[in-house]
Amino acid sequence: MNTVSFFGRELPVIYEVDCIVVGGGTAGATAAISALSEQAKTLVIEKTISLGGTQTNALVSPMMPTYVKGQRVNRLIIERLNKEIETNDGTTTCSWFNTETLSFVLEVLITERGGHILYDANYVDCIKEDNRITHIVINTCAGLIAAKAKTFVDATADAIVSRTAGVPVTSGNEDGQNQQISFRFEMGGIDISALRAFILSQHETFCQIENPNFFEIAMVPGKGHVLEPLFRKGLAEGYLKEEDLRYFQAFTQPGKPGVMSFNCPHIPDIYQTTDPRLRSKAVIKGREMIRRLTKFLPQYLPGFENSYLLKEATQLGIRESYRIIGQYVMTEHDYINRARFQDGIARGDWYIDVHSVTKEHVEKPKFSRGEYYEIPYRALVTEQISNLIVAGRHISSTFLMQASLRIQPTVRDIGEAAGLACAYAIKHDIALNKLNGAILRSQLGMGEL
Ligand SMILES: Cc1cc2nc3c(=O)[nH]c(=O)nc-3n(C[C@H](O)[C@H](O)[C@H](O)COP(=O)(O)OP(=O)(O)OC[C@H]3O[C@@H](n4cnc5c(N)ncnc54)[C@H](O)[C@@H]3O)c2cc1C
To answer: 408: Cβ below 6 Å to ligand 1?
Structure first.
């Protein structure tokens, strides 16, 4: 077996492929399917044992509504999901899923195209020659091993590959503070019909979905939600603390009757997502808050009488951490101007949705249906490394712009472009950071400007 030298040790090179995708999350899984569809031999390195990342392991569902027509791989994933579960609620353009079905579908879409997945494998570092990555170093059950490729996709959401390769990054807002962290969970044993009947009887307008298989509830203090008096009562009677009332939201999960997924708690007082000690503190704090919420709900909310904590996320809900500084840095002006680029390779239309720790929610005016901005290929590639591309919430953008492009349908489309770019770069022997994104735009069927 080939070996490679890493700080005086010889590491076995256990894979040699065209494209390595580090991180099998929302963008990474899509990038892998895209590269494989173009016949690039592809390996996914994933530190957990399921694909989907934030969507599945952080329990973040559903996919936000969008009027941008998703690209081919996004549609393929949804088509496959539809064979297993109902993803369309008939009212919104959200795409609903449950986490296990999504992980399974992503895995099948990769393996049936001949892709390799290395689970339980933590990216540690890279080995470079000049401005190219030649190998990556991975921590596995067998200890440190290496894998070699022609192109690399950093889909880690924390820009780990980029940082270790020497790409400059930034993080947080002008005060260096990141978006709010959430620790999501699921409850089972909920009588959804009784819950719906109660909420609608109180004239709540939050959920407009008529399809009885889908429902959502929310409580943000001061926003007029009918649940607020119930939460205030729980607070007065000692079930909850003030911090539990910061943000509350829950969604049904198709294919899991009686189950809801909770987009909370919001972790108070932790302002940095790039400090490993604070991430651990957030887990401990969140777990304590989940315990209070899951004791409160059966006592106070009709439909929850027999409910129980079904599972906690195995990954924290990190909205934003590091962002690379690439060849083009997207800004909120691109959002406001509905920017178009010759090398636009994906489109977004979600508003600037900041769950801010320093200010209240920052929102820029939402788009009208059909409006969108484009994401240029240059926001995915760097000056420093010729065979690296970034896919996910950590592409090159400002804090505010990231708050729009971070949603799942958009990062999937970014992932598809990244996978296609790797295949194209290999086929035509071009460096990823010299590739003209306008070519990809046309291959993605996005038309000319
Ligand atoms: C609380 C919360 C609520 C949200 N709500 C919504 C919503 O309702 N709808 C919506 O559309 N979007 C929502 N979003 C945004 C969206 O879910 C994320 O921005 C998006 O899923 C991120 O995708 P990604 O591919 O960039 O990262 P991820 O999906 O997180 O993928 C990163 C992957 O890299 C892996 N990885 C990381 N480091 C390593 C390493 N060293 N070695 C190997 N693997 C590694 C991780 O395990 C993971 O699988 C929400 C986000 C959060 C946090």
So the answer is: yes
CA–centroid distance, residue 202 to ligand 1 (Å): 35
Q: In sequence order, what E strands does 9-121 have?
A: 9-22, 42-45, 116-118
For the record, the structure tokens of 44 come out as 């996914």
Q: Rounded distance, CA 215 to CA 232, Å? A: 23
SS3 215: coil
Question: Computed from CA positions of residues 92, 93, 99, 105, in that sequence, does the dihedral angle turn out positive or negative?
Answer: positive
> What are the φ/ψ torsions at residue 342 (nearest 5 degrees)?
-55, -35
Report the distance separating Cα 393 and Cα 355, nearest Å. Answer: 15
- Cβ atoms within 10 Å, residue 413: 30
Q: Is the pLDDT of residue 369 over 90?
A: yes
With b for 16 or more beta-carbon neighbours within 10 A and e for fewer, the 36-55 pattern comes to bbbebbbbbbbbbebbbbbb
pLDDT for 387-423, tens place per residue?
A: 999 999 999 999 999 999 999 999 999 999 999 999 9
Phi-psi region of 427 (alpha: psi -120 to 50; beta: other; left: phi over 0): alpha
Choice among 21-30, 60-69, 335-344, 368-377 with the minimum mean pLDDT: 60-69
- The dotted CATH code for 3-174+320-443 is 3.50.50.60
d(CA 185, CA 294): 10
pLDDT at 434: 98
Whether 54 shows a pLDDT value over 80: the answer reads yes
State if residue 64 touches ligand 1 by the CB under 6 angstroms criterion.
yes
